[in-house]
Amino acid sequence: MNTAQKTRAGEHLSMIMKEFYLGQLRDAAAGKFCAWIAIIVPVELLRGFDMIVAIPENYSAMTAAKGAGPGRCDRAHELGFSRDLCSYARIDFGNNLYPLPGAPFAPLPRPDLLISDTNNCSLLVKWFDVYHREYRAPHFILDVPFCYEDQKEPDLNYIVDQYHDLIKTIETMTGQTCDYEKVRRAVQNTAIALKEWKRFARAALSVPSGITAFDTFVHMASYITLRGTEELVEQYRLLADDTEELVARGAFPVKEERYRLLWDNIAPWHQLRKMSARLAGLKANIVAATYTSCMGTLEGGVDLYEYDGGDPLRYLARIQNSSVCPYGLNLRYRVMEELIRRYSIDGVVFASNRSCKVYSVMQLDLSRMVRERLGVPVVMVDVDHADVTRYSEEAVFSRIEALLEQIDVKKNSL
């Protein structure tokens, strides 16, 4: 959505995100129990307790988007952490371990419990172990298998059993009893919100597209932090309504759209506005991204997996593999093929991400499969999702412009 002023959804997003972080600081000052979690940990499960849920990865992405990433990365290096670590982790260490005086971002509330997950990020367990040693906070690790085919019943049961163990752990640490009805309502809220998200995403079907992938990157922030809440439902309903109104008025982000592209990897948070504007100048639009198209889906899928009102823990376990990172090669390709066909993609930008090895490791094979099986032009660019010092705008755009030339050659030969 490319408008001169923020939409209602844009204004609402700014408001709820500000209140989310300020509210966490107020609750921490009042002594409320705090857990730090990985982004793939099901927040809805924790809505059954009265507690703070902080998400370091999301906070690092926001820090990078605000242009404050390099200073935090430098601070982490001064503390002895390698520059080869994920920039999310380095920003997080810079934010929370001996933070810089006068820093624009306050440290997250100190954790009483750390909850990581093995199936999305290969670094997160070790990342959270740093805080386990620093803060003496217990570290609960959800061991979720990677998936190379559709999830099997034993795997689902294995995940559900660990959810019950996590609930018992929190009950013991807090003295609270998990309110399963609150968990069920939280799952229902997320399911309703994701229906609205998919309605918003359908705007990319129009030609020209009603949205860019950069819109999806910005608005996924509320999903990460506010899953299970009525605020998320309201946010995504506003987002879908605003987007449909803009499309109806003919207000497209790239009105003279000539090239429809797919992005494969995490968002380059430090480049959202700049990259979107420069692409628009080339009449190119990244209309979809594998990173945000997977929300609310099953492994290897694009469509929403509906909640039937049953056991909320089984539902959460079933969508545990919704993010792209746990997929095997064939599932990754299946998703990409569907997105290419659904959104009439002309070319694919594979963003080889220095900070996310799990997302990037299959991209050479994927690019070959897309090019050979689908005849779709592809390009590989080097990025880092949060460290701008490891990004070259000119190098990236020289390759993207070469991709656009390939697309022209293909179109002219038809």
Task: Indicate the radius of gyration in whole angstroms.
Answer: 21 Å
Which range does the strand content fall in? 5-15%
- Strand arrangement within the widest β-sheet reads 2-1-3-4
Computed structural class:
alpha/beta
Estimate the helix proportion, in percent.
40-55%
Report the order of strands and helices.
HEHEHHHEHEHHHHEHEHHHEHHEH
What profile does the largest beta sheet have?
A: 4 strands, parallel
Count of strand segments: 8
Tell me the number of helical segments per DSSP (H or I, 4 or more residues long): 17
**What is the straight-line distance between the termini?**
32 Å
- Quaternary state of this entry equals single chain
Write the layout of secondary structure elements.
Blueprint: H1 8-29, E1 34-37, H2 43-46, E2 52-54, H3 56-65, H4 69-78, H5 87-96, E3 113-117, H6 124-135, E4 139-142, H7 153-174, H8 180-201, H9 213-226, H10 230-248, E5 259-264, H11 272-281, E6 284-289, H12 290-293, H13 312-318, H14 329-342, E7 347-353, H15 357-360, H16 363-374, E8 378-383, H17 393-413
Parallel strand pairs: 1-2, 1-3, 3-4, 5-6, 5-7, 7-8
Helix pairs in contact: 1-9, 1-10, 3-5, 4-5, 7-13, 8-10, 8-13, 9-10, 14-16
